[in-house]
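Record 1 of the preview.
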Amino acid sequence: MNIEVHVPDEDRYQPEDVSVLVRMLNAVRNKIRNNLYFTIFVVIPTLLTALYLFFIATPQYISEAHFVVRGHSSQSGFSLSNILQSSGGGTTSENTYVVQDYIQSRDAAELLIKQNHLLDVYSRPEADLFARYPLFGLEKNFEHFYKYYQRHVLVEQDSETNVSILTVRTFRAEDSQKIARALLDAGEELVNEINRRQRENLIHATALEAQAAETKLREIDQKLAEYRNAVELIDPLRQSLPMTSYVISLQNMLTSTNMQLQQLQASAPNSPLIAAYQRQATILSDQIKKSSNQITGPNGSLVPKITGYEDLMVQREIQQRVLASDVVSLEVAKQQANQQMIYVDEIAQPNAADWPEYPRNTIVLFLVFMSFLGLYTMGKLLIASAQERNLR
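->
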């Protein structure tokens, strides 16, 4: 048997072939290393995110409600004030922002905690550790909850329609609807409180003036009643008119008697009727004097009684006019308050979602993948740049 032994040709392997082999080995090693780094920094985080989203994350439901804050206005037509008012920036828009700010305020959160057990809503047993309250690793206090609340309760305004959109996100559809309803009711209570304060500010001062004028008028009426009891006269001025008329009639009779007496003395000086006319004139003069003394005399005169009565009546008339003016001002203030009242008009009621809107698996997964891929690419470029500088 002939055995042929092949002796390797020493010239068969050249140094160039060795360098090629080394380069191939380095390329394979670099590819494995790159794939390892890509797997560690891109694939594994994406897989972990997918595992959380599809198997651990709790579904979250959104309830949405639309509302606007409107105000009464008695103006009509295309006046300049209406055009300016409808162009935005009016009282209604300001109160809309007030309601929006209140819905996302600490006061609203505290109110829901007390009345609607909001802490229990966001601590449901089915909620996962990364979505429930308190968040994983955080303490249970109000400041942390308020930040959590601001992420789950949002209210925005459409710039074109001025409609405010309220969205509430919880782990149950009925919870989201209940919390959205409670927030709308709280906003309406806030608007009612604003109306009450605004009405009180507009009417309070005028109402106090009207009450003061009415009190003063009652005091004058009381003084007038006391004065009537004191002088024992209901209306001294009117009650003096018959006495004045009586004195005038007596004076007329006296004038007539004196004329007859003078004529008789001229025509028949010895007539026995002269004495009768003289006695009649004397009696009339005495009666006129007595009656005049009752009206204008120093004792028991009606003049000071009439003067005091007229003074009280003038005060009463002035105060009645003041009261009437205050009542008119009060009615005007009430009309202005009614015109400036605002109210919440609900366009779309809070709904109960049929399916969860969060977590958004596809979008989140895509963002996580692209984010880690971008970081991986940036790191790779930085390392390559650093190696190139070292080689130089």
